[in-house]
TrEMBL record:
This is Membrane protein. It comes from Mycolicibacterium litorale. InterPro entries: Poly_Biosynth_Transport. The lineage of its organism: Bacteria, Bacillati, Actinomycetota, Actinomycetes, Mycobacteriales. The keyword Disulfide bond does not apply. GO terms for cellular component: plasma membrane. It is found in: Cell membrane. The chain crosses the membrane at residues 16-38, 44-67, 93-113, 119-142, 181-200, 221-243, 255-274, 294-315, 335-358, 365-383, 389-411. Its main location: membrane. Keywords: Cell membrane, Membrane, Transmembrane, Transmembrane helix.
């Protein structure tokens, strides 16, 4: 089946801890890039940067579908598959997807570039296409590492990506490169997978793994995951693009709202995004009780969320001004509501990981697409920018959560029926 049989042991506390440390470093690096950009650029300029940051987040978020499918395929693989049967090399597939994705961005850019990027348009297009190509391979390699329990290498890849971004941002801040430098910083980490392959024999071995089934089968599953991950990325990372597309001019107010949205969701969504491999592996291992397996991580999310809502309401306005300057002002109620919206998206991310683990690609996609469509429609309400942002981010995810839970409940019912039948026949 594979060049080397993948390790499929349980997801241990040490593996979660290792990824947790890497996630903390990644989050701090992300905050550092945002801090440097906000200090170096006025709110209107930060709005332009924020839209590109969101556009790359949207594109790379869609590429996380490759991580999900690679993790599930490798994790589900068993040594009893005949080595001469159909098989797929996910990294080779990812390379083809990377080239096609980059070409599509460049070819279609004349249709949308003027509506999304209001400055440095063609530099943004070229960086976006190159960054996405690199991230397709980055995400697939993360999936291979998660599927084989190589959590140290998984964390190292995350940290390398984040550190490269910070180094470019620091250089930009020091030499006064301006907006262009922060655009480069956004995509700079997309070469991290090459560095890890060069330095780590274990990573090279994981990258060479084959998975059972044809390339077409892998692509069908990946297509569903990419579609759903793309929809999720609109709400998780690409939301500034959505705001720009549904607004005449974001201006300084838009810069403040984008920064507030990014800061309030990062403490929850950065760790959850980084731990997709852990979560999917955990839910695959708990294939007979996935709804029950959701309880513990959901309780953690809710507990952190309650603390976050209170802290954002009481301390958020002061922290925003103290950290980023007097020009970045938002009231406590807005920050508290945006934090509550981040909790809703975090719960949707959890239920989505459980449906991916169950190979329910259609349910996963419908849930995220439904949440995104609901959010877009709510953004079109005749309300001020702050209010419609909160309403869209808080209410949209509820649609997706309902779809995912309904699908998971159906699989639980079927699994229970099968267990009862087996008992009766034994």
């Amino acid at each position: 089946m594979t060049d080397a049989a993948p390790s499929t042991g349980p997801v241990t506390r040490s593996s979660v801890a290792r990824v947790g440390v890497a996630t903390a470093v990644t989050a701090m690096c992300g905050y550092a890039v945002l801090y440097l950009a906000a200090r170096d650029l006025e709110p209107a300029g930060f709005s332009v940067f924020g839209v590109f940051w969101g556009a790359f987040g949207l594109a790379s978020g869609a590429a996380f579908g490759l991580l999900q499918e690679a993790t599930r395929e490798v994790r589900d693989a068993r040594a009893d598959h005949p080595p001469d049967g159909p098989h797929t090399r996910p990294m080779r597939v990812a390379a083809v997807v990377a080239v096609v994705a980059a070409m599509l961005i460049i070819a279609t850019s004349p249709l949308w570039v003027g509506h999304v990027f209001v400055a440095a348009q063609w530099l943004s297009v070229l960086l976006l296409s190159a960054g996405l190509a690199g991230f397709c391979l980055h995400a697939t390699l993360l999936g291979m590492l998660a599927g084989t329990n190589l959590w140290t290498q998984y964390g190292a890849l995350m940290v390398t990506d984040a550190v490269i971004r910070v180094l470019v941002a620091v250089a930009t801040f020091v030499v006064g490169w301006g907006l262009g430098g922060f655009l480069w910083a956004t995509v700079g980490g997309a070469i991290a997978w090459l560095l890890l392959l060069a330095c780590s024999p274990a990573t090279r071995a994981a990258a060479r793994l084959r998975t059972p089934g044809s390339t077409a089968t892998f692509l069908r599953g990946a297509a569903h995951s990419i579609a759903a991950a793309g929809a999720s990325a609109v709400l998780v990372m690409g939301f500034p693009v959505l705001l720009q597309a549904t607004s005449d001019d974001l201006g300084a107010t838009g810069g403040v709202v984008i920064l507030a949205v990014t800061l309030t969701r990062a403490p929850l969504l950065v760790p959850l995004t980084a731990m997709q491999g852990n979560l999917i592996a955990h839910f695959v291992d708990q294939r007979t009780a996935r709804l029950r397996a959701l309880i513990a991580p959901a309780a953690v999310v809710l507990g952190i969320g309650v603390v976050g809502v209170v802290a954002a309401g009481l301390l958020g306005p002061w922290l925003l001004r103290a950290g980023f300057g007097e020009q970045y002002r938002a009231d406590g109620a807005l920050l508290a509501w945006l934090t509550a919206a981040a909790v809703a998206i975090a719960l949707l991310t959890l239920t989505g990981a459980a449906t991916v683990a169950a190979a329910m690609h259609r349910t996963y996609a419908i849930g995220w697409v439904g949440a995104t469509v609901a959010a877009v429609l709510l953004l079109l309400l005749p309300l001020d920018l702050e209010t419609r942002t909160v309403v869209a981010l808080l209410c949209g995810p509820v649609v997706g959560i309902a779809v995912h839970l309904a699908g998971l409940a159906g699989t639980n019912d079927r699994a229970h029926i099968l267990r009862v039948r087996r008992r009766r026949t034994t």
